Structure formats: structure tokens, C-alpha cells
Amino acid sequence: MTTSSIPTRTVSFGRRHIHFAELGSGTPVVMLHGGGPGASGLSNYSRNVAALAESFRVIVPDMQGYGRSSKGVDRADPFGDLAEAMLGFLDAIGVRRAHVIGNSLGGACGLRMTLDQPHRVSGLVLMGPGGVNTTRALPTRGLSKLLDYYGGKGPSREKLREFVREYLVFDGSQVPDSLIDERYEASIDPEVIKAPPLRRPAGIPKLRNWDFTRDPRLDECHVPTLVLWGADDKVNRPSGGEALRTRMRRCDLHLFARTGHWVQWERAAEFNAITTAFLREHTPT
Asked: What amino acid positions are annotated as catalytic residues?
């Protein structure tokens, strides 16, 4: 099955509208994509949706600020704004509780959803999530490239090619030109350029809003959590995985050798298998 054949629709609530795809049946699993330029739900999880939909009701939104969803993200508290949007989205489609999967920015969103409303999340899977140990050192070169994409002379295909092939994955030769083209076109949507969803914070940020390890709620989180991290991640430091494992009450950690920031894409078969097993184990009866 190709992602283009998966049914999609848009739901509106409050000041937001969220475009999403849905496939399969059973326990809801919400898959939240990363925050790189041109990202969207189905493009981020093109190698995973069909496999997970064999066991679950898979819901794949374009997060607030991305794809065909409403634009604009609160720069003072982006993780909180995205979490509010995704919880509101679940309300709008009648889902009270779900498993949540999040990659990078989507991981930060999923973790914030879990800390804000833990009763809404049955199981949490995070791949290289943002917001872990980020204020204890200078940003990685990959994260700097992401945050600066709309700065300087503005977006370009070359900037996007470099970011994806040099910083998102371990082996950039595996990324087809078609993926670069698709993401570049999405990144230059006039509405996105007017309000880029992920940029450097304005002024001095409130550190708790940008670094989960400063949030005391992390120590009290009982939601079953699986953290998957590429050992060669150049965007978010792999040390963040151990930081989460030692703080969270029910957190398993897996590191993938010769893998970058896109575990779900680079190691798709293993990701699909381990994620399915973990979520089945923690599906409420």
C-alpha cells in the first residue's frame, strides 16, 4: 500500500484545523512526526503506517504548523502549544485515550501530552525526542541547521538536501531525490514561510519549556514508555535516551547502531516489530 491511497480528512476545533490520515482498527495509535522543514505525518511514517495498521487504528496527523493543518506555533512554549493542539484534536475525533508515537518534535509533543494529561496516554514510544538535555550544551549542528532553515537567505533545496542527507540519517545515499523534492515544496508553502513552526526561541526562553529534564513531573510519570534512539543521531543527542530512562518510572531504552535521527525510516522493519510488540503489551484490556 502506498501512503497516497490512505484516506485523509480534516477536523476543525477552536482556532485550529488538523489534517490527518487514518488506517486500521482497534486501539488508537497516534503517530506524531518530526519538526524538520517540509515534514508531515505520512511522509515521516511512510514505512510504518501499513505495518502498524495490521494491529491498531493508526491515526497520523499533520501537526499544528505543518502539512495541511493550521499554521502558527507559540514560540515561547512550542511543545505545550503542540500538545494542546494534539489533545484537542483527539477530543475532536472522539478519542479519549490512545498510544502515542513521536519522532523528534513529535516526540517532544507526545512527552508533553503525557506529562500534562497522563490518563490520556496508554503507551508512549519516542524516537530521538526533542527537549531532552537541550539546555545543558550548545545545540547540535543538526539542530542548528534545522532552526536556521528559514533564516539568512531563506529556504532552498540545497539547504534541505544537506539537512536531510547529512544530518537526519546515517547513510544519506539511501534518501531518494523524490523525498527531498516533496519536502522542499512543502517547506516553501507561503503560509509556512510566514509563520515557520520551529525557529530559534525569541529572547531568553523559559528553560522548563524547552528541556524536559527540568520538569519534576518526569520523575512521577508511570506511563509505559519505549525510547528508541539512533546512536549516530546528529540532531538530538543520544545521551537523552539514558536521561529519560533514569528519570521515568517505566521506561525502556534501545539504541540502534549506524542509525541517525530517523529510526523509524532507517530501521523500519525493526521499528515496526518492536513498537507493535510494546504497544500490544501495554494495550488496555
From this structure: 261
